[in-house]
Design a protein that fits this description.
This protein is mainly beta. It has 2 domains: 52 residues, no CATH class; 74 residues, Beta Barrel (OB fold (Dihydrolipoamide Acetyltransferase, E2P)). It has 1 helix and 9 strands; from the N terminus they run E-H-E-E-E-E-E-E-E-E. It is globular. The structure holds zinc ion. Zinc ion (ZN) binds next to loops.
Length: 139
């Protein structure tokens, strides 16, 4: 078995990584976004959840191959937590893929105010040390 690579998601400081989350992060590290799907009712979660919110059944990971989305909603954060204060103001956006799945992430390359319905493209990011992986929206 391959050695476990130390990874964490850029949107959280939570270092308590479950095997399920570790698998999600390893896929993200390879530029693959994973959703989860409930084995019982089929409900999909993005970001993935290990257990279904409706029936607590086990969910399995499946790749999201869509990259293009539309801006569904957003907020502009003027007063950020200390860890993100160097980026403020920044935009947290909900993008919706053609499949209907929605994903919340920062938009990192805006040159003007966002508009609901504008095109977004999914991007991936790593910290210089390679330990932090994130996904983000690009315009
Ligand atoms: Zn379910």
């Amino acid at each position: 078995m391959a050695e476990k690579k130390e990874l964490y998601l850029g949107y959280t400081t939570d270092k308590a990584i479950t095997p399920f989350m570790q698998s999600f992060l390893e896929h993200l590290d390879q530029g693959r976004l994973m959703k989860s799907k409930c084995g019982k009712c089929g409900k999909e979660y993005l970001p993935p959840r290990q257990h279904c919110q409706k029936d607590m059944s086990e969910c399995t990971l499946a790749e999201v191959t869509e990259r293009d989305a539309k801006l569904y909603s957003y907020v502009i954060v003027d007063f950020a937590p200390e860890s993100l204060s160097s980026r403020q103001p920044y935009v947290v956006a909900i993008g919706q893929f053609p499949s209907g799945l929605k994903l919340t992430a920062h938009i990192t390359n805006l040159m003007s105010l966002p508009e609901v319905g504008m095109k977004l493209k999914l991007g991936f990011d790593k910290s210089p040390d390679g330990k932090m992986v994130t996904y983000r929206w690009l315009v």
